[in-house]
Amino acid sequence: MRWSGAILAGGWSRRFGRDKALYPYRGQPLLAWVWEGMAEASERFVVANRPYPGYRVCPDLQGGGGALSGLHAALVHARYDWVAVAGCDQPFLSVAYWRFMRDQVAPGIQAVVAGSAEGLEPLGALYHRSLEEEAGRCLELGYLGLRALLRRVSCLVVDRGVLEARFGPHLFLNANRPEDLP
Hints:
Blueprint (H helix, E strand, L loop, with lengths): L2 E6 L15 E2 L2 E2 H8 L5 E5 L9 E2 L8 H11 L4 E6 L7 H9 L7 E6 L2 E10 L3 H10 L4 H5 L4 E5 H8 L15
Parallel strand pairs: 1-4, 1-6, 4-5, 7-9
Antiparallel strand pairs: 2-3, 6-8, 7-8
Helix pairs in contact: 2-4
């Protein structure tokens, strides 16, 4: 299956104190770890409104919607039907993780996401390009959360606990400050 890899790096990183994507972590920027995890993608790009030298960067098309704006841009810019979407601060999403998530794709499904009793993990997920119109509609209506979009579409939910047991406990780390990184 050919697929696109999109890394969202459009936030301001206010709590982090500096650009998260470029933060050096274990010898390279966080962005580089996420990029490497998507090495099997047929294409990779960063969704951001500023340049990242050495990376293909695509801008948000409808700003002001946070990660939903980033997802919408990723779906518009992607050349392939399935788009892996990760935050620039998710360095533990490995090649093996994305291979496993791609293996879950089934007919009639529009998203493959991790979930638990606490809810869905909208990043580190696969989205079908057919969601572009619905993502745009959510932005227009002011439904800005990715979870709001996921409630409106056909999702396959993979148990977060199973994924963490298989790929590590920091898989869905959300690093809001440098000290959040293990």
